[in-house]
C-alpha cells in the first residue's frame, strides 16, 4: 500500500514537472517589455522560495537536534541544507541570466540578490564547519549552533539592508502584499546623494516646465563606468511621464514626487516585469510551479535525510 | 546561580584575560601591527584621493574592512589559547558557562575598542579621512564594534574546537557579519560627510538591534558550544 | 555526595570502542581504583564522571541522601586532576588559585589559599609564575586546583606520576582526608596506590 502510494506520488511529481515546463514555454503569454525571458519567472521564483523554506526547516531541525541529540534530527537538518543549497544555486543562476537579458546586468547588488548570496555563503560555511570537526557529536552540535545563529541574522538582511539600499529591481510590489518599493528621497539642500541598487544618484536640480515637473539627476554606474544626467518627469496628474533609461541598462528611472520650492525629489528604479502576475494564465502556472517545486524539494529532502541517517547508523554499528 | 555570583565569576574571567594579556602582550602587539600595516598598505596603494562626493563612502568602506580583518586576527584568541594551552578543561570544570562567555566578550570588546581607536586615528592621519560629524561617527564606531564582538565571540568558541581555526573563523563569521557591516559602512559614510544625528540614528539603531540580537542568541547557544 | 552510580557506560572514539557497558556503584567514604593498560580508558572514564566528556552510552548519577543530584550542581562538588590538566602559565600559583576560587564564587581569603599551597608542598612559591615551575611542582599545583573547593568527589588521574617520595605522602594524606568527607576515584597503574582501593576495577581495553 505504502509503496504503491509512493510510486503514484513519484509519477505524478514527474508528470507535474513536465506540465510546468510545457506550460512555461507554451501556455504563459509573453509579457510586454520582458520578451521570452519573462518565462524564467516560472522556475526562478519557486526555487527562491524553496530555498528560504529549506533554510527555515534546517534551522528548526537544528533546534530539535540540540534538544533531542537524535541523529535523525541532525540528518534532517543537513538534508534540508543540501536541498536548500541546490535550489539556492539554481535560483541565483536563473536570476542572473534573467537579469542580464532583461535588466542588462548579471548582478546589481539588489537586496534580494544580496540576501541570496549571503544564504549561499552561510550554507558554504555550514558545510565547511562540518568537515573540519572530527568528533561526531561535537560536529553535529556545533553545526546546529551555527545554523541557528545564522538564522537569527536573516531578519536583518531581509528588512534592514533593503531599507538602506532603498530600492530594488525586483518587482516585489507585484508578489508581496505590503512590501514597499519607495525609491529614494533626495534633497538639494541636504542629502542629495543616494543609491538605487548599486547606482549612485545625485540630485542636480528640480524644475517646473509648463505642466510637467522634472528633476535632473546625475547617475554614476558602478565603477564609474558611465555617468549621465537623467531627467525624469511627471505630469500635473502626478503620474510619471518621461522614464529615461540608465546608461547601458534596460531599466529606467521614474520620478515619483517632487517639490520645486523645497528642492526635494523622490526617484526610483522601474524595471520591466512589474505586474507580471496580473495575467490569469501566468498566475495559475506560477502557483502550480510553486507547488511542484515544493514537492520536488520535499522528495529530495526525504531521500537525502534517510540516506544520511542510515549511513551514520551503519558507521556506528560497524564500530561496535 | 545568583546574579552576584555570575557577575563575580565574569569579572574574574575578564580580569584573568587582562592580566594574561598584560604579561604576554601577544594579542595587542600582533593586532596593532596588523592594523598599522593594513592602513599603511591602503594609503600607499591609493595615494592621495581626489575630493569627490564618493570619498566618504570609500573611506568608510576601507576603515571597516581593516577593522573587520583585524578583528578576524584578534577576536578568536580568547578561546583558541585556552585550547592550545589546554587550560580549557580546568576552566570548563570550575566556571559557569555564562561567566566564561561574558568575561571573554568583555575582553574582546575592550580589545576591539582599542583597535578601533587606533585604526580611526591612523585613517585620519594617513588616509586624510575627514570626520565632519564627530559625535555620530564615534557612536557608530562604538555600536559597530559592539555588533562585531557580539557576532563573533560565539563563533570564536566554536572554531576553537575545530581544525584549521584561522581560516574557519573568517569563513563562519563573514556571512553573519554582512548585515552589520553594510549598515556600519553606510552609517559611517553619512557621519564622515557631515550628516547630523537625525539621519545617523537609523543605522545606529540597526547596529544596536543587531548587537542585542546576536548577544542574546549567543547567551542561549554558548552552553552547547562549551559543554564538553 | 553519598554515592556515584555508573550505569552501562560505553565510550567510543570514532570507530574504536574503548569501554562497553561498565556498571558500578561507589559509596561515600570509599576509594575506587581503576587500573588497566595504556589506552584502556582510565582517563576517559574519569573525564566522563566529571562531565568533561559525554559517554557514547549510559549515564552517571550522583546521589545525595536518596535523591539524584543535577549534573550542573554535582559539578560544583567534583575535584579533578590529571597530567593533562593545565593551569595558566603566565599567572602565579596563587593567582591561579585565586582565579579558580573566584569563578566558583568562593570568597577564600589569601591566608587559606597560602595554607593550601603549603599543604601541597608549594610553600613560598605561590608568588612565582607557573611557567617557572618544574613538572613535579606543576603537578602539586594540580592538587591544589582539585582540592580548592573541598570537593566531595575527588577524581585523581595518575596522581603521583611526577612526584617524589614526599609527594606520595601528600597523596596518602589527601586520600585519608577524602575518606572522611566523600568519595575518591583514582586511575593508576602504580601498585602502591592500588592499596587504597575499596573497589578495584581492571579495564581490559579494546579487543
Observed structural traits:
heterotrimer; A: alpha+beta; 2 domains; 5-stranded antiparallel β-sheet; 7 helices; 8 strands; C: 207 residues; alpha/beta; Rossmann fold; 4-stranded antiparallel β-sheet
Biggest sheet details of chain A:
5 strands, antiparallel
Strand portion of chain A, in percent? 15-25%
Task: Please state the CA-atom Rg of chain B, rounded to the nearest Å.
Answer: 18 Å
Query: Could you give the distance between the termini of chain A?
Result: 36 Å
How many helices of chain B does DSSP assign?
9
| Integer tally of domains of chain B | 1
Structural class of chain B comes to: mainly alpha
Mean pLDDT of chain B: 90
Q: Biggest interface in this structure?
A: A-B, 34 and 38 residues
Succession of helices and strands of chain A: HHHHHHEEEEEEEEH
Query: Shape of chain B from CA axes?
Result: globular
Q: Mean of residue pLDDT of chain A?
A: 79
Q: What fraction, in percent, of the residue positions of chain A are helical?
A: 55-70%
Concise account of the structure shown:
The complex is a heterotrimer of chains A (320), B (228) and C (207). Chain A is of the alpha+beta class and 320 residues long.
Task: Please characterize this protein's 3D structure.
The complex is a heterotrimer of chains A (320), B (228) and C (207). Chain A contains 7 helices and 8 strands. Chain A is α+β, with helices and mostly antiparallel strands and 320 residues long. Chain A has 2 domains: 2-170 and 283-319, no CATH class; 184-270, no CATH class. In chain A, the strands form 2 sheets. In chain A, strands 2, 3, 4, 5 and 6 form a 5-stranded antiparallel β-sheet that branches. In chain A, strands 1-8-7 form a 3-stranded antiparallel β-sheet, with no helix packed on it. Chain B has helices at residues 3-24, 26-46, 55-74, 77-84, 88-94, 97-126, 134-159, 165-192, 197-226. In chain B, helix 7 runs parallel beside helix 9. Chain C has 207 residues and is of the alpha/beta class. Chain C has one domain: Rossmann fold. Chain C has 7 helices and 9 strands, in the order βββαββαβαααβαβαβ. Chain C has helices at residues 42-50, 71-75, 93-103, 110-119, 135-147, 165-181, 191-194, and strands spanning 3-13, 16-27, 31-36, 57-64, 67-69, 78-81, 153-157, 183-187, 199-203. In chain C, the strands form 2 sheets. Chain C has a 5-stranded parallel β-sheet with strand order 6-7-8-3-9, sandwiched between helices. Chain C has a 4-stranded antiparallel β-sheet with strand order 2-1-4-5. In chain C, strand 7 (153-157), helix 6 and strand 8 form a beta-alpha-beta unit. Chains A and B meet through helix 4 and helix 5 of A and helix 7, helix 8 and helix 9 of B.
Amino acid at each position: 500500500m505504502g509503496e504503491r502510494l509512493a510510486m503514484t506520488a513519484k509519477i505524478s511529481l514527474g508528470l507535474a514537472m513536465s506540465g510546468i515546463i510545457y506550460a512555461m514555454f507554451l501556455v504563459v503569454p509573453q509579457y510586454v517589455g520582458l520578451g521570452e525571458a519573462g518565462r524564467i519567472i516560472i522556475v526562478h521564483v519557486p526555487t527562491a522560495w524553496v530555498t528560504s523554506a529549506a533554510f527555515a526547516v534546517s534551522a528548526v531541525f537544528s533546534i530539535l537536534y540540540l534538544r533531542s541529540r537524535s541523529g535523525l534530527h541532525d540528518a534532517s537538518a543537513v538534508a534540508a541544507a543540501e536541498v536548500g543549497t541546490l535550489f539556492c544555486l539554481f535560483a541565483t543562476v536563473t536570476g542572473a541570466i534573467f537579469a542580464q537579458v532583461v535588466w542588462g546586468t548579471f548582478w546589481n547588488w539588489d537586496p534580494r540578490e544580496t540576501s541570496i548570496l549571503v544564504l549561499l555563503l552561510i550554507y558554504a560555511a555550514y558545510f565547511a564547519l562540518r568537515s573540519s570537526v572530527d568528533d561526531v557529536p561535537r560536529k553535529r552540535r556545533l553545526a546546529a549552533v551555527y545554523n541557528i545563529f545564522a538564522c537569527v541574522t536573516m531578519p536583518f538582511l531581509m528588512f534592514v539592508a533593503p531599507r538602506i539600499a532603498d530600492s530594488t529591481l525586483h518587482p516585489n510590489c507585484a508578489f508581496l502584499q505590503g512590501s514597499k518599493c519607495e525609491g529614494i528621497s533626495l534633497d538639494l539642500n541636504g542629502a542629495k546623494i543616494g543609491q538605487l541598487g548599486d547606482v549612485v544618484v545625485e540630485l542636480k536640480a528640480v524644475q517646473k516646465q509648463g505642466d510637467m515637473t522634472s528633476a535632473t539627476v546625475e547617475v554614476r554606474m558602478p565603477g564609474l563606468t558611465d555617468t549621465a544626467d537623467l531627467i525624469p518627469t511627471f505630469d500635473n496628474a502626478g503620474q510619471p511621464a518621461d522614464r529615461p533609461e540608465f546608461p547601458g541598462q534596460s531599466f529606467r528611472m521614474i520620478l515619483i514626487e517632487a517639490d520645486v520650492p523645497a528642492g526635494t525629489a523622490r526617484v526610483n528604479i522601474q524595471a520591466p516585469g512589474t505586474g507580471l502576475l496580473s495575467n490569469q494564465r501566468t498566475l495559475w502556472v506560477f502557483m502550480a510551479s510553486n507547488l511542484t517545486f515544493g514537492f520536488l524539494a520535499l522528495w529530495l529532502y526525504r531521500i537525502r535525510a534517510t540516506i544520511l541517517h542510515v549511513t551514520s547508523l551503519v558507521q556506528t554499528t560497524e564500530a561496535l | 546561580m545568583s546574579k552576584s555570583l555570575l557577575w563575580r565569576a565574569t569579572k574574574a574571567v575578564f580580569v584573568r584575560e587582562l592580566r594574561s594579556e598584560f604579561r604576554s602582550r601577544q594579542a595587542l602587539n600582533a593586532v596593532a601591527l596588523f592594523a598599522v600595516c593594513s592602513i599603511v598598505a591602503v594609503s600607499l596603494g591609493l595615494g592621495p584621493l581626489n575630493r569627490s562626493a564618493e570619498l566618504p563612502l570609500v573611506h568608510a568602506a576601507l576603515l571597516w574592512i581593516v577593522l573587520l580583518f583585524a578583528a578576524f586576527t584578534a577576536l578568536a584568541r580568547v578561546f583558541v589559547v585556552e585550547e592550545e594551552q589546554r587550560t580549557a578543561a580546568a576552566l570548563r570544570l570550575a566556571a559557569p558557562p555564562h561567566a566564561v562567555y561574558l568575561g571573554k566578550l568583555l575582553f574582546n570588546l575592550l580589545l576591539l575598542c582599542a583597535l578601533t581607536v587606533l585604526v580611526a586615528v591612523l585613517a585620519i592621519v594617513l588616509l586624510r579621512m575627514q570626520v565632519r560629524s564627530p559625535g555620530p561617527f564615534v557612536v557608530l564606531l562604538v555600536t559597530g564594534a559592539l555588533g562585531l564582538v557580539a557576532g563573533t565571540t560565539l563563533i570564536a568558541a566554536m572554531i576553537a574546537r575545530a581544525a584549521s581555526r584561522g581560516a574557519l573563523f573568517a569563513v563562519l563569521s563573514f556571512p553573519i557579519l554582512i548585515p552589520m557591516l553594510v549598515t556600519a559602512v553606510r552609517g559611517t559614510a553619512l557621519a564622515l560627510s557631515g550628516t547630523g544625528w537625525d539621519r545617523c540614528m537609523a543605522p545606529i539603531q540597526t547596529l544596536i538591534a543587531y548587537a542585542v540580537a546576536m548577544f542574546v542568541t549567543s547567551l542561549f547557544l554558548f552552553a552547547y558550544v562549551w559543554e564538553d | 555526595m553519598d554515592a556515584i552510580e555508573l550505569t552501562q557506560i560505553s565510550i567510543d572514539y570514532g570507530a574504536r570502542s574503548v569501554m562497553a557497558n561498565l556498571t558500578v556503584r561507589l559509596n561515600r567514604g570509599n576509594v575506587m581504583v581503576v587500573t588497566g593498560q595504556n589506552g584502556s580508558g582510565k582517563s576517559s572514564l574519569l573525564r566522563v564522571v566529571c562531565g568533561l566528556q559525554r559517554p557514547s552510552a549510559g549515564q552517571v548519577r550522583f546521589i545525595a541522601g536518596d535523591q539524584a543530584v543535577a549534573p550542573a550542581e554535582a559539578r560544583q562538588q567534583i575535584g579533578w586532576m590529571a597530567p593533562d590538566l593545565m593551569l595558566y602559565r603566565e599567572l602565579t600559583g596563587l593567582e591561579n588559585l585565586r582565579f579558580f576560587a573566584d569563578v566558583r564564587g568562593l570568597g577564600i581569603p589569601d591566608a587559606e589559599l597560602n595554607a593550601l599551597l603549603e599543604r601541597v608542598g608549594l610553600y613560598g612559591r605561590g608568588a612565582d609564575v607557573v611557567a617557572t615551575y618544574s613538572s613535579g611542582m606543576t603537578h602539586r599545583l594540580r592538587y591544589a586546583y582539585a582540592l580548592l573547593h573541598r570537593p566531595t568527589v575527588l577524581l585523581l588521574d595518575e596522581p603521583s606520576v611526577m612526584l617524589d617520595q614526599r609527594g606520595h605522602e601528600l597523596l596518602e594524606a589527601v586520600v585519608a582526608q577524602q575518606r572522611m568527607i566523600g568519595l575518591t576515584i583514582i586511575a593508576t597503574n602504580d601498585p602502591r596506590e592500588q592499596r587504597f582501593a575499596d573497589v578495584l576495577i581492571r579495564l581490559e581495553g579494546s579487543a
